[in-house]
Write a structure and sequence with these properties.
Strand order of the largest sheet: 32-34-33-36-30-37
Largest sheet: 6 strands, mixed
Low-confidence stretches: 6-22, 430-441
Helix content: under 10%
Number of strands: 37
Number of helices: 3
Amino acid sequence: MEIGSMILLFSCVLFLLLSSCATLDTISTNQVIRDGDTIVSDDKMFELGFFSPERSKNWYVGIWYKKISTGTVVWVANRETTITDKSGMLELSRQGNQLICSGDNTVIWSSNLTVSAMNDNLVVVVQLLDTGNLVVWDRSTKNERVIWQSFDHPGNTFLPGMKIGKDLASGRERVIIPWKSADDPSPGPYLHWLDTNGYPQIFVRKGSVIRWRSGPWNGLKFQGWSIENPNPIYSIQFVMNEKEIYYKYDLKSSAVQRVLVLPDDVAVPLQWMDQIQEWVVHTIGAATDSCGGYGLCGPYASCNANRYPPCKCMAGFKPQVPDEWDRANGSSGCERKQDLDCMSGSGFKRISGIVFPDTRRSWYNHSMTLEECEMACRMKCNCTAYANSDIRNGGSGCLLWFDELMDTRENDDNQDLYIKLAASEFAGSHVYGFNYIFELL
Protein backbone atom coordinates (compact mmCIF):
# COMPACT_ATOMS: atom_id res chain seq x y z
CA MET A 1 0.00 0.00 0.00
CA GLU A 2 1.30 3.44 -0.91
CA ILE A 3 2.42 5.70 1.91
CA GLY A 4 -0.19 8.31 0.93
CA SER A 5 -3.00 5.75 1.10
CA MET A 6 -1.74 4.49 4.45
CA ILE A 7 -1.70 8.02 5.84
CA LEU A 8 -5.22 8.59 4.53
CA LEU A 9 -6.44 5.32 6.05
CA PHE A 10 -4.76 6.10 9.37
CA SER A 11 -6.31 9.56 9.38
CA CYS A 12 -9.78 8.13 8.76
CA VAL A 13 -9.39 5.57 11.55
CA LEU A 14 -8.07 8.23 13.91
CA PHE A 15 -10.98 10.50 13.02
CA LEU A 16 -13.48 7.74 13.71
CA LEU A 17 -11.84 6.91 17.03
CA LEU A 18 -11.78 10.55 18.10
CA SER A 19 -15.40 10.99 17.00
CA SER A 20 -16.40 7.92 18.99
CA CYS A 21 -14.52 9.13 22.06
CA ALA A 22 -16.11 12.54 21.79
CA THR A 23 -19.61 11.09 22.08
CA LEU A 24 -19.07 8.47 24.79
CA ASP A 25 -20.93 10.69 27.27
CA THR A 26 -24.05 11.28 25.14
CA ILE A 27 -27.15 9.54 23.80
CA SER A 28 -28.71 10.80 20.58
CA THR A 29 -32.18 10.22 19.18
CA ASN A 30 -30.99 7.41 16.92
CA GLN A 31 -29.28 5.45 19.68
CA VAL A 32 -30.62 2.71 21.95
CA ILE A 33 -28.94 1.70 25.21
CA ARG A 34 -29.39 -1.97 26.16
CA ASP A 35 -28.00 -4.15 28.92
CA GLY A 36 -24.21 -3.96 28.66
CA ASP A 37 -24.21 -0.60 26.87
CA THR A 38 -23.17 2.46 28.86
CA ILE A 39 -22.24 6.09 28.52
CA VAL A 40 -19.42 7.57 30.60
CA SER A 41 -18.84 11.13 31.77
CA ASP A 42 -15.94 12.94 30.12
CA ASP A 43 -13.71 12.66 33.20
CA LYS A 44 -14.58 8.94 33.53
CA MET A 45 -15.98 9.49 37.05
CA PHE A 46 -19.60 8.43 36.37
CA GLU A 47 -21.27 5.81 34.18
CA LEU A 48 -24.88 5.24 33.12
CA GLY A 49 -26.49 1.99 32.08
CA PHE A 50 -28.64 -0.93 33.22
CA PHE A 51 -27.90 -2.57 36.58
CA SER A 52 -29.45 -4.98 39.06
CA PRO A 53 -28.85 -4.70 42.83
CA GLU A 54 -26.94 -7.62 44.32
CA ARG A 55 -29.89 -9.57 45.76
CA SER A 56 -32.55 -8.38 43.32
CA LYS A 57 -34.05 -9.91 40.18
CA ASN A 58 -35.12 -6.50 38.86
CA TRP A 59 -33.28 -4.22 36.45
CA TYR A 60 -32.94 -0.47 36.50
CA VAL A 61 -31.30 2.38 34.61
CA GLY A 62 -28.93 4.16 36.93
CA ILE A 63 -25.80 6.25 37.35
CA TRP A 64 -22.87 4.92 39.34
CA TYR A 65 -19.23 5.72 40.04
CA LYS A 66 -16.83 4.29 37.48
CA LYS A 67 -13.39 5.74 38.26
CA ILE A 68 -13.62 5.00 41.99
CA SER A 69 -15.87 2.69 44.03
CA THR A 70 -17.05 0.96 40.86
CA GLY A 71 -20.78 0.24 40.85
CA THR A 72 -21.74 2.55 43.75
CA VAL A 73 -25.10 3.84 42.51
CA VAL A 74 -25.97 7.54 42.97
CA TRP A 75 -29.19 7.86 40.91
CA VAL A 76 -31.93 5.57 39.56
CA ALA A 77 -34.39 6.47 36.79
CA ASN A 78 -37.15 3.83 37.07
CA ARG A 79 -37.29 3.54 40.87
CA GLU A 80 -40.98 2.62 40.96
CA THR A 81 -41.29 0.64 37.72
CA THR A 82 -38.88 -2.24 37.23
CA ILE A 83 -37.84 -4.58 34.45
CA THR A 84 -37.66 -8.23 35.44
CA ASP A 85 -35.07 -9.32 32.85
CA LYS A 86 -32.26 -7.99 30.66
CA SER A 87 -34.51 -7.00 27.77
CA GLY A 88 -34.79 -3.33 28.73
CA MET A 89 -33.93 -0.48 26.38
CA LEU A 90 -33.26 3.23 26.99
CA GLU A 91 -33.84 5.66 24.16
CA LEU A 92 -34.36 9.37 23.53
CA SER A 93 -37.41 10.56 21.62
CA ARG A 94 -37.30 13.44 19.13
CA GLN A 95 -39.23 15.52 21.65
CA GLY A 96 -36.49 15.05 24.26
CA ASN A 97 -38.20 12.38 26.37
CA GLN A 98 -36.10 9.58 27.78
CA LEU A 99 -37.98 6.30 27.55
CA ILE A 100 -37.24 2.97 29.21
CA CYS A 101 -38.98 0.12 27.44
CA SER A 102 -39.29 -3.57 28.22
CA GLY A 103 -38.60 -6.29 25.68
CA ASP A 104 -42.11 -6.02 24.18
CA ASN A 105 -41.65 -2.23 23.68
CA THR A 106 -43.92 -1.34 26.61
CA VAL A 107 -42.86 2.01 28.06
CA ILE A 108 -42.26 1.42 31.76
CA TRP A 109 -40.67 4.82 32.54
CA SER A 110 -40.54 8.24 30.94
CA SER A 111 -38.83 11.46 31.97
CA ASN A 112 -42.20 13.15 31.22
CA LEU A 113 -40.65 16.14 29.52
CA THR A 114 -43.29 18.55 28.25
CA VAL A 115 -41.70 20.05 25.13
CA SER A 116 -43.95 21.04 22.24
CA ALA A 117 -44.06 18.33 19.62
CA MET A 118 -44.78 21.02 17.02
CA ASN A 119 -41.14 22.09 17.09
CA ASP A 120 -39.86 20.14 14.10
CA ASN A 121 -36.42 21.69 14.44
CA LEU A 122 -35.79 20.39 17.94
CA VAL A 123 -32.32 18.83 18.27
CA VAL A 124 -31.86 16.94 21.53
CA VAL A 125 -29.11 14.86 23.15
CA VAL A 126 -28.64 13.31 26.59
CA GLN A 127 -25.29 13.95 28.23
CA LEU A 128 -23.78 12.54 31.45
CA LEU A 129 -21.80 15.36 33.03
CA ASP A 130 -18.69 15.10 35.21
CA THR A 131 -20.86 16.10 38.21
CA GLY A 132 -23.01 12.97 37.87
CA ASN A 133 -25.88 15.03 36.46
CA LEU A 134 -27.72 13.53 33.46
CA VAL A 135 -28.84 16.39 31.21
CA VAL A 136 -31.12 16.63 28.17
CA TRP A 137 -29.91 19.50 25.96
CA ASP A 138 -31.86 21.36 23.31
CA ARG A 139 -29.21 22.19 20.71
CA SER A 140 -31.53 23.55 18.04
CA THR A 141 -30.27 27.11 18.57
CA LYS A 142 -26.86 28.68 19.13
CA ASN A 143 -27.51 28.99 22.85
CA GLU A 144 -28.17 25.40 23.89
CA ARG A 145 -30.41 25.01 26.92
CA VAL A 146 -31.14 22.39 29.55
CA ILE A 147 -34.68 21.03 29.17
CA TRP A 148 -34.39 18.20 31.75
CA GLN A 149 -31.79 17.04 34.29
CA SER A 150 -31.52 14.24 36.82
CA PHE A 151 -30.40 16.73 39.51
CA ASP A 152 -34.02 17.93 39.52
CA HIS A 153 -35.08 14.43 40.60
CA PRO A 154 -32.74 13.32 43.42
CA GLY A 155 -32.87 9.85 44.92
CA ASN A 156 -31.06 8.77 48.06
CA THR A 157 -27.77 10.56 47.30
CA PHE A 158 -26.97 14.27 47.71
CA LEU A 159 -24.10 15.16 45.34
CA PRO A 160 -22.06 18.38 45.17
CA GLY A 161 -23.86 20.98 43.05
CA MET A 162 -27.27 19.35 43.54
CA LYS A 163 -30.03 21.66 44.78
CA ILE A 164 -32.53 20.66 47.46
CA GLY A 165 -35.47 23.04 47.58
CA LYS A 166 -38.23 24.54 45.47
CA ASP A 167 -38.44 26.17 42.04
CA LEU A 168 -41.04 28.86 42.69
CA ALA A 169 -41.77 29.41 38.98
CA SER A 170 -42.61 25.79 38.12
CA GLY A 171 -43.54 24.58 41.60
CA ARG A 172 -41.07 21.69 41.28
CA GLU A 173 -39.63 20.48 44.59
CA ARG A 174 -36.30 18.68 44.83
CA VAL A 175 -36.35 16.27 47.78
CA ILE A 176 -34.31 13.33 49.06
CA ILE A 177 -36.15 10.00 49.34
CA PRO A 178 -34.09 7.01 50.60
CA TRP A 179 -34.37 3.56 49.05
CA LYS A 180 -36.80 1.07 50.56
CA SER A 181 -33.90 -1.32 51.23
CA ALA A 182 -30.31 -1.86 50.14
CA ASP A 183 -31.53 -4.01 47.23
CA ASP A 184 -34.72 -2.09 46.42
CA PRO A 185 -34.32 1.47 45.11
CA SER A 186 -38.07 2.14 45.17
CA PRO A 187 -39.00 5.11 47.41
CA GLY A 188 -38.99 4.26 51.11
CA PRO A 189 -41.16 5.86 53.82
CA TYR A 190 -38.80 8.77 54.64
CA LEU A 191 -38.71 12.17 52.96
CA HIS A 192 -36.18 15.00 53.35
CA TRP A 193 -37.40 18.36 52.09
CA LEU A 194 -36.90 22.10 52.42
CA ASP A 195 -40.14 23.56 53.74
CA THR A 196 -40.65 27.07 52.33
CA ASN A 197 -43.54 28.04 54.60
CA GLY A 198 -42.50 30.94 56.84
CA TYR A 199 -38.71 31.08 57.08
CA PRO A 200 -37.36 27.99 55.25
CA GLN A 201 -35.96 25.02 57.17
CA ILE A 202 -35.22 21.36 56.47
CA PHE A 203 -37.63 18.65 57.64
CA VAL A 204 -37.56 14.86 57.72
CA ARG A 205 -40.78 12.92 57.90
CA LYS A 206 -41.84 9.28 57.89
CA GLY A 207 -45.18 9.04 56.20
CA SER A 208 -47.05 12.04 57.59
CA VAL A 209 -45.13 12.17 60.89
CA ILE A 210 -42.35 14.77 61.21
CA ARG A 211 -39.21 13.16 62.63
CA TRP A 212 -36.67 15.98 62.59
CA ARG A 213 -36.25 19.68 61.83
CA SER A 214 -33.02 21.53 61.08
CA GLY A 215 -33.86 24.99 62.37
CA PRO A 216 -33.57 28.04 60.09
CA TRP A 217 -30.57 29.22 58.08
CA ASN A 218 -28.51 31.68 60.16
CA GLY A 219 -26.32 33.10 57.41
CA LEU A 220 -23.70 30.36 57.62
CA LYS A 221 -25.58 27.09 58.16
CA PHE A 222 -28.85 25.57 59.28
CA GLN A 223 -28.83 25.81 63.06
CA GLY A 224 -29.22 22.08 63.70
CA TRP A 225 -26.13 21.21 61.63
CA SER A 226 -22.89 20.62 63.54
CA ILE A 227 -20.60 21.84 60.78
CA GLU A 228 -18.20 24.67 60.06
CA ASN A 229 -18.99 26.88 57.08
CA PRO A 230 -16.91 28.12 55.37
CA ASN A 231 -14.07 25.60 55.42
CA PRO A 232 -11.28 24.68 52.97
CA ILE A 233 -13.02 21.56 51.57
CA TYR A 234 -16.57 22.66 50.68
CA SER A 235 -18.94 25.60 50.84
CA ILE A 236 -22.63 25.46 51.71
CA GLN A 237 -24.99 27.91 50.04
CA PHE A 238 -28.57 28.85 50.83
CA VAL A 239 -30.36 30.84 48.13
CA MET A 240 -33.73 32.52 48.54
CA ASN A 241 -35.12 34.81 45.86
CA GLU A 242 -38.27 35.33 43.82
CA LYS A 243 -37.40 32.41 41.50
CA GLU A 244 -36.23 29.64 43.82
CA ILE A 245 -35.34 28.62 47.37
CA TYR A 246 -32.69 25.94 47.81
CA TYR A 247 -29.50 24.85 49.52
CA LYS A 248 -26.52 23.02 48.05
CA TYR A 249 -22.86 22.37 48.68
CA ASP A 250 -19.90 22.74 46.31
CA LEU A 251 -16.40 21.32 46.62
CA LYS A 252 -13.38 23.60 46.85
CA SER A 253 -10.89 20.77 46.44
CA SER A 254 -10.40 17.57 44.47
CA ALA A 255 -12.06 15.52 47.21
CA VAL A 256 -14.86 13.14 46.16
CA GLN A 257 -17.82 13.47 48.50
CA ARG A 258 -21.46 12.46 48.70
CA VAL A 259 -24.20 12.31 51.32
CA LEU A 260 -26.04 8.96 51.36
CA VAL A 261 -29.37 8.61 53.17
CA LEU A 262 -29.81 4.97 54.17
CA PRO A 263 -33.18 3.14 54.18
CA ASP A 264 -33.45 3.59 57.97
CA ASP A 265 -33.03 7.36 57.44
CA VAL A 266 -29.47 7.59 58.74
CA ALA A 267 -27.71 10.30 56.72
CA VAL A 268 -24.11 9.23 56.09
CA PRO A 269 -21.77 11.95 54.79
CA LEU A 270 -18.96 10.18 52.93
CA GLN A 271 -15.60 11.02 51.40
CA TRP A 272 -13.57 8.73 49.15
CA MET A 273 -10.06 7.98 50.40
CA ASP A 274 -7.67 6.84 47.67
CA GLN A 275 -5.12 5.57 50.18
CA ILE A 276 -7.42 2.87 51.52
CA GLN A 277 -9.84 2.68 48.57
CA GLU A 278 -12.87 3.14 50.82
CA TRP A 279 -15.56 5.66 51.73
CA VAL A 280 -15.09 7.25 55.15
CA VAL A 281 -17.51 9.40 57.12
CA HIS A 282 -16.88 13.15 57.15
CA THR A 283 -18.88 15.96 58.76
CA ILE A 284 -20.78 17.81 56.04
CA GLY A 285 -24.45 18.26 56.80
CA ALA A 286 -24.45 15.94 59.77
CA ALA A 287 -27.41 16.74 61.99
CA THR A 288 -27.16 17.09 65.72
CA ASP A 289 -29.09 14.80 68.06
CA SER A 290 -32.75 14.83 67.13
CA CYS A 291 -33.73 14.82 70.83
CA GLY A 292 -36.19 12.02 70.24
CA GLY A 293 -38.05 13.54 67.31
CA TYR A 294 -39.97 16.66 66.43
CA GLY A 295 -41.74 18.44 69.30
CA LEU A 296 -40.82 15.90 71.97
CA CYS A 297 -41.21 18.51 74.70
CA GLY A 298 -44.29 20.30 73.40
CA PRO A 299 -44.73 24.09 73.15
CA TYR A 300 -42.66 26.62 75.12
CA ALA A 301 -40.16 23.99 76.29
CA SER A 302 -36.60 23.17 75.29
CA CYS A 303 -35.07 19.74 74.78
CA ASN A 304 -31.59 18.57 75.72
CA ALA A 305 -30.67 14.98 74.84
CA ASN A 306 -27.90 15.03 77.45
CA ARG A 307 -30.33 15.81 80.28
CA TYR A 308 -32.83 13.55 82.03
CA PRO A 309 -35.62 14.22 81.77
CA PRO A 310 -34.72 15.99 78.52
CA CYS A 311 -37.51 18.60 78.66
CA LYS A 312 -37.44 21.93 80.48
CA CYS A 313 -39.87 24.85 80.44
CA MET A 314 -38.55 28.14 79.16
CA ALA A 315 -38.23 31.06 81.59
CA GLY A 316 -41.68 32.49 82.28
CA PHE A 317 -43.45 29.19 81.59
CA LYS A 318 -44.56 26.21 83.68
CA PRO A 319 -45.60 22.61 82.87
CA GLN A 320 -49.04 22.45 81.33
CA VAL A 321 -49.79 19.03 82.86
CA PRO A 322 -47.56 18.75 85.97
CA ASP A 323 -48.44 15.10 86.64
CA GLU A 324 -47.08 14.10 83.24
CA TRP A 325 -43.88 16.08 83.76
CA ASP A 326 -43.43 14.36 87.12
CA ARG A 327 -43.40 11.10 85.19
CA ALA A 328 -40.69 12.45 82.80
CA ASN A 329 -43.22 12.99 80.00
CA GLY A 330 -42.99 16.56 78.76
CA SER A 331 -44.92 16.11 75.51
CA SER A 332 -47.81 18.26 76.76
CA GLY A 333 -45.44 21.21 76.87
CA CYS A 334 -45.61 24.36 78.93
CA GLU A 335 -47.90 27.33 79.46
CA ARG A 336 -47.35 30.91 80.54
CA LYS A 337 -47.10 31.71 84.23
CA GLN A 338 -48.72 35.05 83.43
CA ASP A 339 -51.00 35.55 80.42
CA LEU A 340 -50.07 38.21 77.91
CA ASP A 341 -52.21 41.34 78.01
CA CYS A 342 -51.43 43.68 75.14
CA MET A 343 -53.03 46.60 76.97
CA SER A 344 -50.82 46.10 80.05
CA GLY A 345 -47.54 45.95 78.16
CA SER A 346 -44.89 43.27 77.81
CA GLY A 347 -41.17 42.67 77.91
CA PHE A 348 -38.68 40.23 76.45
CA LYS A 349 -36.33 37.70 77.94
CA ARG A 350 -33.29 36.58 76.00
CA ILE A 351 -32.18 32.97 75.70
CA SER A 352 -29.24 31.61 73.70
CA GLY A 353 -27.61 28.28 72.97
CA ILE A 354 -30.65 26.86 71.17
CA VAL A 355 -31.96 25.75 67.79
CA PHE A 356 -34.72 28.26 67.17
CA PRO A 357 -38.37 27.13 67.38
CA ASP A 358 -40.24 25.98 64.28
CA THR A 359 -40.35 28.89 61.80
CA ARG A 360 -43.18 27.71 59.56
CA ARG A 361 -45.50 30.34 61.08
CA SER A 362 -42.86 33.03 61.27
CA TRP A 363 -42.39 36.30 59.39
CA TYR A 364 -39.02 37.64 58.23
CA ASN A 365 -37.37 40.73 56.82
CA HIS A 366 -33.69 40.70 55.92
CA SER A 367 -33.14 44.46 56.07
CA MET A 368 -34.48 45.29 59.55
CA THR A 369 -32.28 45.93 62.58
CA LEU A 370 -32.74 44.10 65.87
CA GLU A 371 -34.27 47.21 67.41
CA GLU A 372 -36.79 47.49 64.57
CA CYS A 373 -37.50 43.77 64.96
CA GLU A 374 -38.25 44.23 68.67
CA MET A 375 -40.60 47.10 67.95
CA ALA A 376 -42.44 45.08 65.29
CA CYS A 377 -42.97 42.20 67.75
CA ARG A 378 -44.07 44.56 70.51
CA MET A 379 -46.71 46.11 68.23
CA LYS A 380 -48.21 42.76 67.18
CA CYS A 381 -50.23 41.26 70.02
CA ASN A 382 -49.84 37.66 68.79
CA CYS A 383 -46.07 37.91 68.27
CA THR A 384 -44.41 35.59 70.77
CA ALA A 385 -40.69 36.04 70.02
CA TYR A 386 -38.17 37.75 67.78
CA ALA A 387 -34.53 37.35 66.70
CA ASN A 388 -31.95 38.33 64.10
CA SER A 389 -32.20 36.11 61.04
CA ASP A 390 -28.48 36.39 60.22
CA ILE A 391 -25.58 36.05 62.67
CA ARG A 392 -22.93 37.51 60.36
CA ASN A 393 -21.41 40.94 61.01
CA GLY A 394 -22.84 41.20 64.49
CA GLY A 395 -26.37 40.21 63.47
CA SER A 396 -28.94 41.54 61.03
CA GLY A 397 -32.44 40.87 59.70
CA CYS A 398 -35.61 40.05 61.60
CA LEU A 399 -37.52 36.89 62.46
CA LEU A 400 -40.89 37.12 64.20
CA TRP A 401 -42.73 34.13 65.69
CA PHE A 402 -46.49 33.94 66.10
CA ASP A 403 -48.49 31.59 68.32
CA GLU A 404 -46.73 28.73 70.17
CA LEU A 405 -42.95 28.21 70.18
CA MET A 406 -42.48 24.56 69.20
CA ASP A 407 -39.51 22.17 68.96
CA THR A 408 -36.81 24.27 70.61
CA ARG A 409 -33.60 22.30 71.14
CA GLU A 410 -30.53 23.23 73.12
CA ASN A 411 -27.13 23.35 71.39
CA ASP A 412 -23.90 25.34 71.37
CA ASP A 413 -25.02 28.13 69.01
CA ASN A 414 -24.81 31.64 70.46
CA GLN A 415 -27.73 33.11 68.54
CA ASP A 416 -30.16 35.01 70.75
CA LEU A 417 -33.94 34.55 70.87
CA TYR A 418 -36.10 37.14 72.63
CA ILE A 419 -39.32 35.71 74.09
CA LYS A 420 -42.28 37.99 74.86
CA LEU A 421 -43.61 37.79 78.42
CA ALA A 422 -46.22 39.72 80.40
CA ALA A 423 -44.93 42.91 82.00
CA SER A 424 -45.75 41.48 85.43
CA GLU A 425 -43.04 38.83 84.89
CA PHE A 426 -40.44 41.59 85.26
CA ALA A 427 -41.56 42.91 88.71
CA GLY A 428 -38.49 43.27 90.87
CA SER A 429 -36.14 42.45 87.97
CA HIS A 430 -33.52 44.84 86.66
CA VAL A 431 -34.86 45.78 83.21
CA TYR A 432 -32.85 47.37 80.42
CA GLY A 433 -35.11 48.78 77.76
CA PHE A 434 -37.71 46.09 78.48
CA ASN A 435 -35.14 43.36 77.73
CA TYR A 436 -34.35 41.17 80.70
CA ILE A 437 -31.23 39.08 80.08
CA PHE A 438 -31.68 35.38 80.79
CA GLU A 439 -29.28 32.63 79.83
CA LEU A 440 -30.73 29.13 79.35
CA LEU A 441 -28.90 26.71 81.63
